[in-house]
Known about the structure:
Helix content: 10-25%
Radius of gyration: 15 Å
Strand content: over 45%
Strand order of the largest sheet: 1-2-3-4-5-6-7-8
Shape: globular
Low-confidence stretches: 1-21
Number of strands: 8
Number of domains: 1
Amino acid sequence: MVMRGAAAAALALIVGASAAQADVVFKGTAVVTAVTNTAVCLAEYDVGEAFAITYRAKVSGEPAKETLQGIGTDGAYLITATSSGGLLRGGGATARIDGVAYAQPVTVTSTTLSLTSAPATIAASTNYVTLSGYINNLAIPGCRVTFRMSLARLP
Length: 155
């Protein structure tokens, strides 16, 4: 119940911010499809593990940077684009990760990721998005986690 309350509060903040900035917000599920084959990475992430996702996409002309919030059974992360274009999508993207895992704060000041979106261009009228790709150093140095996310736009 606490996790649901925290998720609802975080979602309310993101939705409130998006209304003021006219960002497009999507919600859905991410499923882990692969992880780095190291003991520490395999201990944290399982292929098939699911995360509740809220994704604030940057549409053309918007100044805000993209963010991706993931909530799982053992932690929650906020991934914020630090790339010059403000996108989490595309090759060579960089991001900051803040969150909590096993009741311990987690901060990764800079990491790389590669997420591909379908459709490739997200507009204010886009209703559904699929993101697939990887995030490096997801709370664990040297741990690459590969995902597939299915998301629907919030009204």
